[in-house]
Each structure stands twice: as structure tokens, then as C-alpha cells.
UniProtKB/TrEMBL annotation:
Keywords, comma-separated and alphabetical: Membrane, Signal, Transmembrane, Transmembrane helix
Polysaccharide lyase domain span: 117-334
Superkingdom to which the source organism belongs: Eukaryota
InterPro entries: Polysacc_lyase_14
Leader sequence segment: 1-21
Regions crossing the membrane: 357-377
Protein name, entry field: Polysaccharide lyase 14 domain-containing protein
Native species: Tremella mesenterica (Jelly fungus)
Annotated coiled-coil segments of the chain: none
Length: 378
């Protein structure tokens, strides 16, 4: 189904391209991420949780034929920046627990105001850790070549050894962060069920790199990667946990509420036997963290980065992490970029010019530029 862009959206899109430039495209080009691209489609109307989960399964190339959990926690709803109300309550049965309900959720508002719908994920009161709230699925829309690929400065088996996931995220005003929660990222390896929930990795079957919010909105990359590499846990901005994942760059950026903000997460595989893997993140177009000497894999059994690990929930593995009330987070402009070739140890950092803010609106968005230009479109 199609939708019509409002005049406001057209103006914003033009401003984004003229004023802040194509920073995301520059990053994609500079890091050789041009071999594959997938823009996750959205429906033309709002959808309740039953229809939304079916839409995701049918159109987002999931590795399984269903969401891992949280099918009742996803809807496609109006953009919260255009809606008069962003909180939608689930109709609970009298016997349902505070954190778990089988009731279908529907957006309270259906008027899209000329904008495409966005994905809304619910985190019910009392929910924490996986199946009690949020949602999770593994999307693999891009497949590499069956043959090897010749490159100028590195080698490739023809699989996608580098990927970047980009999306916009909105936390409503008053969002209660509690101790933290998981957000979508990337994963790799033949084992599709490990590398989360305390299932650690030795670098032969899988690794994962998700985003995480902490108390007061502090952000980080949260990874399940091998931790036995030399001096790994003693690095600045690396916090290892013997039972769970590793924190990269905790607090190097901070999420805000009541506004769209962009996340661009790039991962490049290391050469097997060489600690030269790359994890970099840009928050609202600004470099937030960069690690370029990582051993993400220890064997060629991990031959590529698979795709988007859309894994989001409060937690943490106990009730101290639980959401204190029914809460929602919104996602839009989900895109995936891929390229050939493991890291060769010479990956260039983004130049200082990329510190200029750049935000997607559909592909790019304007955030804060409107007031600077004196254009009051909202």
C-alpha cells in the first residue's frame, strides 16, 4: 500500500539533503559497504500486533518463520512526532500477569497525517529479559556471492564480512530508563540462538553487537565477543562481565526523550588469527565510539555478518531491571548496508568533517536544524 508525503515531510527531506549532506552515504562509501542494501519496508496503514507481526515475518526476511518472542508487543502506529498521543494501553484479560498478556494490541490512533507508520514496541510493566516484554527476531535480507570476490587491499570469500545497520529511535517523554535495556544491532555466525542471554562465545559459532541503554539513558554497544584476547578487558572503555556480555563505550553518548535520534552501527570482521576487527557507532551522525583492534571471530566458521539482530527488552536477567510501567519505544528508517572483505588493519576513521550532525528522514532527517533556520514547521 502507498502513502503520500506531506508538504512538511518534503521540506524536511530537501533540507536534510541540502543542509546536512549525505553523511550516512559517505560512511557507506568510505567503508566499502556498497555491495548490498536493504530498506526495511513498512505498511501503508497502521497495524495491530497480529497483523504487524505477520507483516514483519513476510517482508523482513526473518531467519525463522516467526518472531522469537514479543509478537503481541509490536504494532505499526503513527509517528509519535505527529501524533497527539503516543501511549497506547493493551486490553488485558483478568487472569493475565502484569508482564505477560496474549491480548492483541492496537494503536489508539490511526491517522498517519501523511507520514508512513513506524514500528512501536511495548515493554509491559514488570517485564524484563526476553520473553516477558519487548521483542526479538533475526533478519537476514542480504546474501553474499557464492564465489570469491577480488578486492584491491583485502580478500573476500564472497560473503558479507562488513555491515552497517541504521535506524531512528524515539523514547517518549518521561521514559523510565531504570537500570537499562537492549536495542537492535548485528549478529554473525552459524549459531543463530547463542551470543545473548548469558550464552558466551569462543569466536567459532557466533558473535553479537547490540545497542544498550543504561541508567539515565547512557548508551553503549553491548557485545558477545571473545574476551580471552590479550589485554582486551583492560582496554579503556571496555567493561567485561564473566557471565554476560561486554560493554563498549558505556556513556560515550546519551539517549534523549521526546525526539527522533539516529543510530548507525558498523561491524567489520577481523582476519582470522588477527585482532583487527572493527566496531564503530555514530549517534545522530556524530562518531560516538570506535574499536579497531578486536577479535570478533577465531575461526573461518564465522564467514560473514548475518544481519539485523532486532533484540530489545528491559534487562538484565532479574526483576531489578524490570520496566516500572507499561512503556513504548518507536523505530523507523531501518536500513542495512553490506560489503565484501574482512578488515585489513587499515580501516580509516571517519574524517573530522563527519562530526557535523546528520540525521535520516526516511533516509535522512532534520533534527534541530529547523530552529536554526528559523523555519517553524512543527
Amino acid at each position: 500500500m502507498s502513502f503520500t508525503l506531506s508538504k512538511r515531510s518534503i521540506v524536511l527531506l530537501l533540507l536534510a539533503r541540502v543542509v546536512v549532506g549525505d553523511t550516512l552515504l559517505n560512511i557507506v562509501s568510505n567503508h566499502g559497504l556498497t555491495a548490498g542494501n536493504f530498506v526495511f519496508p513498512v505498511p501503508g496503514t497502521t497495524l495491530n500486533s497480529d497483523a504487524a507481526s505477520q507483516y514483519i515475518v513476510q517482508n523482513w526476511d526473518l531467519s525463522a518463520s516467526h518472531l522469537d518472542f514479543g509478537a503481541n508487543n509490536v504494532v505499526f502506529s503513527p509517528d509519535p512526532s505527529t501524533a497527539t498521543s503516543t501511549l497506547v494501553r493493551r486490553a488485558r484479560s483478568a487472569t493475565s500477569s502484569p508482564a505477560i498478556s496474549t491480548a492483541i494490541t492496537s494503536p489508539a490512533l490511526t491517522d498517519l497525517v501523511g507520514e508512513p507508520p513506524v514500528l512501536r514496541v511495548e515493554y509491559p510493566q514488570g517485564s524484563f529479559s526476553k520473553s516477558t516484554g519487548g521483542t526479538q527476531f533475526y533478519s537476514q535480507p542480504l546474501a553474499g556471492s557464492a564465489a570469491g570476490v577480488s578486492l584491491d587491499n583485502t580478500t573476500s570469500t564472497g560473503q558479507y564480512e562488513r555491515m552497517l545497520v541504521a535506524y531512528d529511535i524515539w523514547f517518549p517523554q518521561g521514559y523510565a530508563w531504570n537500570m537499562g535495556g537492549k536495542l537492535p544491532g548485528l549478529r554473525a555466525g552459524p549459531e543463530s540462538a547463542g551470543c545473548s542471554g548469558g550464552s558466551e562465545t569462543n569466536g567459532t559459532e557466533c558473535f553479537s553487537t547490540r545497542i544498550m541503554w543504561r541508567a539515565n539513558g547512557a548508551g553503549e554497544v553491548y557485545g558477545y565477543v571473545p574476551t580471552d584476547q590479550k589485554n582486551f578487558c583492560s582496554q579503556s572503555n571496555v567493561i567485561c562481565n564473566s557471565d554476560f556480555g561486554t560493554s563498549f563505550g558505556r556513556g560515550t553518548f546519551t539517549f534523549v526523550t521526546g525526539a527522533w535520534q539516529s543510530i548507525w552501527l558498523m561491524v567489520i570482521l577481523n582476519e582470522v588469527g588477527v585482532a583487527n576487527g572493527v566496531v564503530e557507532l555514530w549517534y545522530n551522525g556524530v562518531p560516538a565510539l570506535s574499536f579497531t583492534s578486536l577479535e570478533l571471530r577465531s575461526a573461518s566458521s564465522i564467514s560473514s555478518i548475518g544481519g539485523v539482530f532486532f533484540s530489545t527488552f528491559f534487562g538484565g536477567d532479574d526483576s531489578s531491571w524490570a520496566s516500572p510501567t507499561d512503556q513504548y519505544v518507536y523505530y523507523r528508517n531501518l536500513q542495512l548496508f553490506a560489503g565484501y572483505g574482512a578488515s585489513n588493519g587499515t580501516e580509516s576513521n571517519v574524517s573530522s568533517s563527519s562530526h557535523t550532525l546528520s540525521f535520516p528522514s526516511f533516509t535522512f532527517m532534520v533534527f534541530g536544524m529547523i530552529s536554526v533556520l528559523g523555519l517553524f514547521l512543527f
